[in-house]
Amino acid sequence: MKKAISVVCMLLAFSAAVFAGGSGDSGSAKQGSGIVWCGWSGEEEASREIFTWMRTSWEEQNPGKTVTWIGWPWAETATQLVIRNQGNERIDIAQVDIGIFATIAATGSLADWNDLAGTGYLKDNFEEASLAVGQIGGKQLGLPWSIASIGMIYNPEILAKAGYSEPPKTVAEFEQCLEAIAKLPGDIIPYGVATKDATAANDFMPWLWTFGGRMYDANGNVTVNNTQGVQALTWYKNLMDKKLIRTNMSRFDARQLFAQGRIAFYDDAILAKGIAVGNGVPEDRLPQVARPMVRPVLNTGDKPRSMMWGHMLVVFNKSNDKDDAVSFAKHLVSKDVSMRYFSRNGMPPVLKPVIASPEVQNDYWVSNWSRITATGEIGEFDLNPQKNQLTTIIAEELQACLTGDKTPQKAADDAASRMKNVR
């Protein structure tokens, strides 16, 4: 918590300098001019048109009321939200991702959705896993907007050649499947798990959970080097020794190789469908060469593990039009808006009734991803202001283990020691 406060203090200090030199807003909105919605996606070319429609369609349904969009590049959004909140400029509702959410929540400036929308509305409309992403200190400070997990994707055609008609369900079956794929001609990489840069830590974390390990225990003590953590690292090293995974594999590399039919499995976000098409996979071929799957479990009956990813909506305590902000938020997550957002930009819907609708259930991609997300959880570093440093530690120690420079136990112990120094 002290680190969270220090990060906020640095943002506030920076904001003072910005106020002295002038704001970089793409527009301005004073008190009394309707609700103000802030974020970054509306500034991006791929999302600008639909973000405009989101606003105008709500205005058409609510004559006399307006929504003003204020946007910045993603990298500036957290700082600019703090600036706007502490100043005299209007701010009612904002788009945040998990990292931005942690920073803004630490300022104490966010309203509780339990009070804004009611616990009944939340429980009736959102999965518990999605709600958990926006919960801090017993309060629902973030409303799920487009939430999914980082899941696994496989190539059915490659699996069929290896004798598998469906993806493996357990870790043991998964390893057997990888071994069968390794015997196929064509230098196919069985599993394109990330093994370099910070993404390696993100891919490792759900496997750590799968083996029963955690980065921290319930009391905040570092536990990555316990028996389960070492077991997970040993499994990784075993995959490397069998040439079932590769060193120096990034998410970018895996996406490219998967689109070329040279990787059988890899980890990615729900946007992987559009990325595959962008990398040259014909859209009508997607079901044959790219499908999402639930992560294999250690033992039959275990809960499949995945790490949450996505965007939320937050309302600020200083808002004088919270009712309109809530109405607009409900509009954004509604069936019509969320389905258009999904079809245009690949962002998944979050309302349970929408997820259960025929349109979603008949879409093989989003319906399968909904099952992945149902048991997902927020990454153990995601609400920590020192996330970048912590993910770097895990990535470096994982690499040392995979290259044989350290034993799994040594790598786990060194990771634990380094993590303790940044908490």
UniProtKB/TrEMBL annotation:
- Source domain of life is Bacteria
Per its UniProt record, what SUPFAM superfamilies does this chain match? Periplasmic binding protein-like II
Which GO BP terms apply?
maltodextrin transmembrane transport; maltose transport
MF term (GO), any: maltose binding
Q: Provide the Gene Ontology terms for cellular component.
A: ATP-binding cassette (ABC) transporter complex, substrate-binding subunit-containing
Q: Does the keyword Transport apply?
A: yes
Write out the entry's keywords from A to Z.
Signal, Transport
Q: Which residues form the signal peptide?
A: 1-20
**CDD domains, alphabetized:** PBP2_TMBP_like
Which InterPro entries does the UniProt record give?
SBP
Entry's family note: Belongs to the bacterial solute-binding protein 1 family.
Q: Which PANTHER family match?
A: MALTOSE-BINDING PERIPLASMIC PROTEIN (PTHR30061), MALTOSE_MALTODEXTRIN-BINDING PERIPLASMIC PROTEIN (PTHR30061:SF50)
Q: What is this protein called?
A: Sugar ABC transporter substrate-binding protein
- Provide the species name: Breznakiella homolactica
